[in-house]
Every structure is written in C-alpha cells, then in structure tokens.
Write a structure and sequence with these properties.
4-stranded antiparallel sheet; Arc Repressor Mutant, subunit A; 3-stranded antiparallel sheet; alpha+beta
Length: 345
C-alpha cells in the first residue's frame, strides 16, 4: 500500500474531483488559513481548474468562512459546518486563548469584554465588512483607544463567542463581519453527531491517518476522538504500518496517481499541518526546511508527494530550491501559479 499516493488522492492534490472552492472546504472539514493570501491557493489547487475569482465569489457570499476554530487557529470552514463546528470547538479554543492571554500578561475583565463587544457589534453593523484598522478607527470615534495586540484578543473573543467571523475578501488583510449576516440560518447538531461528522470529514480527506494525527488536527481530547471513530462503525477500517495504526474510510480514493508530478504547496497546508507525524512525506532530517519549532510553516515543493524543496510565492521570478533529489525545472507549475496569483490581485 502506497500511503503517499493515497494521501495525495484523498487530499485532492492530484486528480481533483471538485470545481468549486466551497465544495473543497466542505469536503476537507477545515483548511488551515494562517496565511491570508496563500489560503486561496491552498483551496484552489485542490479544484479541477484553480480560479481565484471563484474563490472570491464563494468567500464573499459566505459559503466559505474564515474564523478561529480547531486549536484556536485560523481555519476555513463551509458555512453549513460553521454552527456545529463552533459549538464543538469554541470552549476548548477559548481555554487555549486565555492561556495565551495569561502568557502575554493581558487581562480582560468581563465588563471590559462586554463593553468592547458592544462596540464591535456596532462597527460590524455599520460597516458590514471591516479590517482591524477600520475597527480601531471606529472605536477611536467613540473615545476608545487600545494597543493593537489587545484589540486582536477582543476580536478573537468575539469570534469564539460566535459573534464575528470573516468579512469580504481583501487583497492582504483579514476582514470581519457579523456571523448572523454571513450565516443567517444556523442549525446545530448533538455533540455525538458533530463528532461523527468532523471525524468523517477528517479521515475522508486526510486518509490514511492515525488517531494521534486526528487528535492533533482537531484539538479535541483523545476520548472524544475515539468516540468519533467508533460512531463511524464499519465505514472506517484500520491497518498497521511500521508499528502505527492507520485508518481508511469506505470509498477511499486509490486511482488517479501518476508518477512524475510536482506540487507547489503553500505554507501551513493541510498536506503537512494536518498530521502530527509528518515523516511519511518529510524525512525528519529535512523537517527544518518545512517548519520550525515555533510553528512557522514554509512554502514547500512535493515530488510525487515527497517533500523535496522550497519556493517563494511572492517573488517576481521563480525561486526554486531543492534539498532532496535532483533539481528540476518547474516553469510550468510556476507559470500556472503566477496566472492564479495575477487573478487574485
């Protein structure tokens, strides 16, 4: 069994099956969106014909939502998944956020949080879609001035309270809107239903993967992740490879992989960040080429799924370096990305 080819196929990185970016996001469950400009490529490279214009349509219409979800980090989720995913993840994400606030020596009282939240709602109501800088100017008109870092925490608290989420797409800065405007109709699921759905979405799009991978990706505790797997019953099976237990979903994609392909993968992509153990596609001695110990992920190149080099997405010319295997011209892949990037401006 070729674990790498299975991951490429089921992550939709080769022979993608979907046309619309929103369908990719719904299929994946959640897509890391730490890098605002490159999240578009992370989604669209998994479509049949990458289109930055189509991504904008799905994002601005609210079919794709960007908010702090799993592990209290930036994620893209489908609008229909936002309500139950927020219910499932918000409490633990809030605990994580409070830990970060404590480490940064930032204390926000309940009264301050409630007061600022009122103003954030007013700003989002008046402007519909606004950057943090525009929110700061709005607060200034009301006699409220605060340090940038503190305002970021207030905005994130509002996100985890289900009040704010992404606004319309901006070339390079996050924007914020009211959740009730972006997602007017919201339905909830029971915790067991939500666990089952999140588990299904993860393994269908990341398989083969381990329980430990899923715990890392979801940010949930081990017990809840085990329950999620158990609820899938016979639709999920396991096998052992080099001492680790991997899971496969019923309907796992196995056909469509052809050798000789290269992928220009953005930083923080699910191909790496979606797993706790990354040695299947990235030899440990080369891990520093892909990420550091502080959680900073770099743009990477995959040759037949194996991470072998780095690239510079915002360079005027192709800057391609290889740390594994032979150097190869990637002019075609670079030109494809440049056409997409030009469309995204």
């Amino acid at each position: 069994m070729n674990l790498i080819s299975l991951r490429l196929l089921n992550q939709q990185l080769v022979a993608p099956q979907m046309k619309r970016p929103a369908d990719v996001v719904a299929y994946m469950g959640a897509i890391q969106a730490q890098e605002y400009r490159m999240m578009r490529w992370a989604v669209c490279m998994r479509t049949k014909r990458p289109s930055a214009l189509m991504f904008r349509e799905d994002y601005d219409s609210g079919r794709i939502i960007r908010s702090h979800m799993l592990r209290c980090t930036w994620q893209l989720v489908a609008a229909e998944d936002y309500p139950w995913m927020w219910q499932l993840c918000a409490s633990k994400a809030l605990t994580t956020l409070q830990g970060w606030m404590h480490a940064s020596r930032i204390y926000i009282s309940d009264s301050e949080r409630d007061e600022i939240r009122t103003h954030l709602i007013a700003a989002a109501t008046e402007m519909y879609s606004s950057t943090k800088e525009e929110i700061a100017r709005f607060l200034d008109t009301r006699g409220i001035r605060m340090e940038d870092h503190r305002l970021s925490y207030h905005i994130r608290l509002a996100e985890l309270s289900g009040i704010l989420c992404s606004g319309n797409l901006h070339p390079c800065k996050p924007t914020y809107s009211l959740v009730e405007r972006k997602i007017p109709k919201r339905s909830s699921l029971s915790k067991e239903e939500a666990l089952a759905l999140l588990t299904r979405k993860y393994f269908q799009s990341h398989q083969p993967a381990t329980l430990e991978d899923y715990v890392w990706w979801s940010g949930l505790n081990m017990g809840d992740c085990r329950i999620g797997i158990e609820t899938l019953g016979n639709s999920i099976t396991s096998f052992t490879h080099q001492g680790r237990t991997f899971y496969l979903m019923e309907g796992c994609r196995t056909r469509g992989f052809h050798k000789g392909s290269h992928l220009l993968i953005p930083p923080y992509d699910e191909y790496l960040i979606g797993y706790k153990s990354r040695d299947i596609v990235l030899a440990p001695e080369f891990s520093h080429h892909a990420h550091n110990n502080s959680g900073i992920f770099l743009p990477i190149i995959a040759r037949d799924g194996q991470i072998c080099g780095n690239w510079a997405p915002f360079s005027d010319k192709a800057k391609i370096t290889f740390f594994l295997g032979e150097e190869t011209s990637l002019d075609s892949e670079w030109n494809d990305f440049c056409r997409f990037k030009k469309q995204a401006l």
